[in-house]
Amino acid sequence: MSRKLSTHLSLIAFASVVALALTAHAEDTKSNKHVFVPPVDVTQALKIRMETKATEDLLKRVAEQCMDADCKKQVEECRKTLATCVIVPSKASVHEQEMENN
Asked: pLDDT of 32-55, one tens digit each?
């Protein structure tokens, strides 16, 4: 009985270590991205519904929609890291779109 218990505990410990390592790797991968979350009105005007790779054309359209200095500053930061920048709609924007669709 104790041999089975010790085997099970070893397997659980091993699975926990593997899960922790995979989570850390996922966080490292995530941190390589520059995430830009525009205001709700901008994401809805441009119909951004999911994580979208930033392009110069898309950033130009976002900049045209931005009304405040913070949004424009974020556009410039995204331009500087264009290779890794992604545009993600805010949770409020996603929620609003879900409400419109239901």
From this structure: 899 999 998 898 888 888 899 999
